[in-house]
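Re: your question from the hallway

Yes, I did run it. Sequences:
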Amino acid sequence: MHRLRALSGRRLVAAVLLAALLAVAVAVALLPFVWMLSASLRPRGDLIANPTSLVPGIWTWDNYRAIWEQIPFGRQLGNTALFAGSVAVISVTLDSMAGYALARFAFRGRTVVLVAVIAMLMLPPQVTLVPLYGVLVDLGWVNTYQGLIVPRAADAFGIFFMRQFFLALPRDLEDAGRVDGASELRIYGRVMLPLAWPALLTVGLFNLLNNWNDLLWPLVVTTQTDMRTLPAGLALFKGEHVSDYGLLMAGSVLALLPMLALFFVVQRRFIEGIATTGLK
Amino acid sequence: MFLAPAGVVLLLFVIWPMLNAAATSLTDARLIGGGDWVGLQNYRDLLDDDRFLGALQNTIVYALVTTPVSVALALALAVALNRAVPLRGVVRSAMFLPFVASLSITAIAWSFLLDAQVGAVISWLEALGLDTGNGLRDPRFALPAVMFVGVWRNVGFFMVMFIAGLQSIPKEIREAAVVDGAGAWRRFHTITLPLLSNTTMFVTVIAAIFSFQAFDQMYVMTGGGPFFRSETLVMLIYSRGFEDYDMGSATAISWVLVAIVMLISLLQLAYFRRREVRY
Amino acid sequence: MRTRNSIVVGGLAAALALAACGSDTDAGGGDGPLTITFWNSYTASDRPAVEALVEQFNDSQEDVVVEMTIQPNDVLSDTLLPAYQAGQGPTIVALDASLVPSYVDMGVFQPVDDFYEGDVDAALLPEASLTATTYEDQQWGIPFGATPTMLYWNKELFAAAGVEGPPTTMDEMADAAVAITDPAAGVYGIAIPDREAPSVWAQLLWADGGGVVSEDRTQSVFGSEESIAAVTRWSDLMIDGGISPVGLNGVDADTLFGAGDAAMLINGPWVSAGFTEAGLDYGIAPVPAGSATQSAVAISTNVHLNADADDDERAGAYAFMAFWNSPESQTYWALNTGYPPNRSDVDPATLAENPTAQAFAAETGSRFYLGGLMAAAQIDSDVVVPTIQRITAGEGTAAELMPPASDQIDELLAP
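Structure:
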């Protein structure tokens, strides 16, 4: 509280200005979600008749009710969580190992290799889909969970990110471990990983979201309805000519909530991090 | 040993299909089946392909604008939200929300909001006396609009990476600076920024890559139009490969894109290398 | 090398203890019903009717089970081609007729001429669909969903402007559009999309004797005097008269009409349910006749048989398609979607419950846009759409831009 009193006039203006700017930023960030919520809470006819209005003329929960009848929402949510969750966990593990190796055992040319892989990820997924699918068929992995998950189990983005993170960690820690005669795996697991959680969370979150929202990959690998993920289920409300926006948006809002809740929890961890640094 | 598992996965499921695509770019393949060897013909054809050159130009403009803008905005947000701000968690979550949602869905919302006739945002801008032309369908505004949505989408994610980076700055250093009485701007400039350089480098490289990869919002909002004014290379690749079934051309453009991104990433790395902080 | 990687990755997967959930069921042998896999993109409001009819078929007999996978239209080809490439394509797939030449050329379909020797009389099926699925003198598809476009007109806006509707000629349509357009009120006479919709411009061109390609599909007529005159007329009305916003896509145009901001729209039956729910007072009329002809655009989705399908699978697929095209199924389909029945012998009186289906069933004159052409997608998206967009955006006149566009089309048509 004593800090508040210490605020000079200039600082107060700066604080108010900052708050105002943040408010604008939040408004812009949320605007489409206001539209999505609005579309999910009104009957189709109301949206068609008044597309400009962000406020429903008629309020209804029907879309949220109907979504459970129209698609196996719970089942697909479970599939999505299984797919995106396993990919996130596995890829964080593999990426951090690889990133650690590249940061610590680096030799000339490694970065070039890494950048090459990242650049290659630029190939739009559709272009590599045909050969990639061929690999899955050779492995007999079409319509299997491993076919869905393993090809996503490592990614250049995560490796690159982890490498950058490990580069910035002090070397003294692991050197101390080496002096003690600990194995590399032990140093990595016991010393480095506990320090790396903000980066691990970031990579995990990235991979989780990417796969949570992915439509094409699960559709290509699985043709069985009971293996479908949520984006595939929701896509059924999108038509070539006419879409059922109410159901589509209701489903999208519901699909968002777990991820949003997760992020809220994760970012609290960042705050705790701040608290422990004692900064203020 | 640490590299092996990730290496195997990448080799099998990323690099192998990619080399396969490289081979396709040297043929006149339609979608499936081999196609005949045509050497570098697909690449040569690109040189006088107006649609390709237009898409290349749009892609470069898109990357040159959205990369610095989203990195700068993200850094500003991260620094602002790394301090004690009221409702910090809520504000962070709000800023991150665009990255949580599927862009193919949120782009639908933006299409409605930015529609020249029925768009709420357009009617607000008009009320402010701004020239909104034909909205999303205006040849002048189509590309800026999809660029805006690109920044809107990614800024929250870059912000999170910056916050993670800020967390890794040893507390002693910042405490020392506060004790020394360094002002906020001075602390940012002389301590935060240099110590964040690893993160900044990474975010910049990733932002550039994201901007070259942009696809969903063009696909949903403008279809690359009007008359290809907002068509980027990835849009063109999709159109050639999966609408025209000209896989040879699509893979050739893909490899041009890969080459560009590789070059830019290496340049960025070389630039940041000089400033990289190592312990 | 690859085999070794496979083993390593396989081992890794096993180590991660991911239970295999294999696809071990199909490949039916002697006993049990034969499984026919069927992929299509009848999403959104058409989906319930398709699902119900497939279920009816599966319940109606014990020999064949149709296992259906519905995916959005733009994802279908992304998933279809890798599947065909790997020999895992569906037994049958429903696709837009414009794709027939490309897929036939890739060798993934087999001809279905013998289907028409069975119970279903080809003469009863939509001619535009049969023509559009004929390629190199063979029949490659069986009609699944087929409809012409029609003119939707907003009765309230017509009445408010004191205009009698619906227009029956292109001249009347132009006059009505001009009379109803009221920029101050944000009202447009008509909504003319230039992409992602059944081609309205093709109909405007055909009506006055123009077009994109000649009847025999060998050369471009996009640069003809009639084509240029038609585009000049309508683009002038849009630019100077403001009868329609410029650069609309299909959804934009539907949105405008649904909001009561546009008085006319040319489209298929799928939009009508939403307009009714929005409380719009509208009528459905034939596409107006021009100086040369009256013609709607035909929308045609057909079922195609996998080249790898064996005799049993073919028989199963034919049984399903015969069921699909039976009078009972087609009546159900029409009543529940607003599509006209595929069969001309369904009595329109039985469709009274669905006025949309009844109206669309009455429209007979329709042509398929760019059918039977390998380069259909390129001609439309690379040339026709951008040229129209340039002209309507005022980047050049029809007389300047259409002749070079026509040359481009000729190049694409050259074998």
